[in-house]
Design a protein that fits this description.
The protein is of the alpha/beta class and 240 residues long. It is 24% helix and 25% strand. It has a six-stranded mixed beta sheet, with no helix packed on it. Helix 2 crosses helix 3. Keywords: Hydrolase, Iron, Metal-binding.
Length: 240
């Protein structure tokens, strides 16, 4: 089973619009072109699909992501408009990966940059984990861990303590995938690996105390290969 993660597309209604340093639509097209060659079995897109809340930006995303010859699913980030996003394509909470499963969490808080799961979603996560002991991958937009970047750590998942409390009694969770940080990071909490992934749009400078773009880094995507109960993962960068 090969799973592919894309994140932080930041599309606009105008496909020629500049995001920060680059053209987000062109960058996403190029990433998808290369990522298709990896022949994934499923694709997860972990939020910040749009940069301007426009229906056209989500329609662009649906059109481009549908170039994959496999199922794909998305979840919202802090920049997304949930209503407009749902009108373009459904938000799915669980994906059957055969011997594994993926749980897709919504950390979007309207009007906020930081993320939160909330009590209802935390309770639902606990029930889902208690009901199925298959190896589980959790995907979300905001990382539930410090990424060693002061400004970014201030806008990560706010209720991460409650999240990790649930996972502490559910050892079937093997991996957490997150977006939001616009660069690759690998951390661990309670023996569970937490991975972030380069944006398909522009990159942020890792380890920075203040917001800084990383103009030297290229867009990318993450591959997760699942074999039995084991997994391996790596990042692929894409030249523009």
């Amino acid at each position: 089973m090969r799973l592919l993660q894309l994140t932080d597309c930041h599309l606009s209604a105008d496909p020629r619009a500049l995001y920060r340093l680059g053209f987000a639509t062109t960058q996403l097209e190029r990433v998808i072109e290369e990522a298709r060659a990896a022949r994934p079995d499923v694709v997860l897109v972990t939020g910040d699909i749009s940069n301007d809340d426009s229906p056209a930006s989500y329609q662009q995303a649906v059109s481009l992501l549908s170039r994959f010859a496999c199922p794909w699913f998305w979840l919202p980030g802090n920049h997304d408009n949930l209503q407009v996003m749902r009108e373009a394509r459904s938000l799915i909470e669980e994906v059957d990966l055969g011997p594994w499963r993926a749980l897709l969490l919504d950390t979007h808080v309207s009007g906020e940059v930081a993320g939160e799961l909330g009590e209802a979603q935390i309770d639902a996560l606990e029930r889902k984990l208690e009901a199925d002991d298959r190896p589980t991958l959790i995907a979300m937009h905001h990382p539930p861990i410090s990424v060693n970047s002061e400004w970014m750590d201030q806008i990560r998942l706010r209720d991460e303590a409650a999240f990790w409390h649930i996972l502490s009694t559910n050892p079937q969770v093997r991996l957490v995938l997150a977006g939001h940080v616009h660069h690759a990071f690998h951390g661990s909490v309670q023996g569970i690996d937490v991975l972030t992934t380069p944006a398909t749009s522009d990159q942020f400078l890792p380890g920075s105390d203040r917001f800084q773009l990383d103009g030297a880094s290229r867009p990318g995507y993450r591959i997760v290969d699942i074999d039995g109960e084991e997994w391996t993962s790596w990042v692929e960068r894409v030249s523009m």
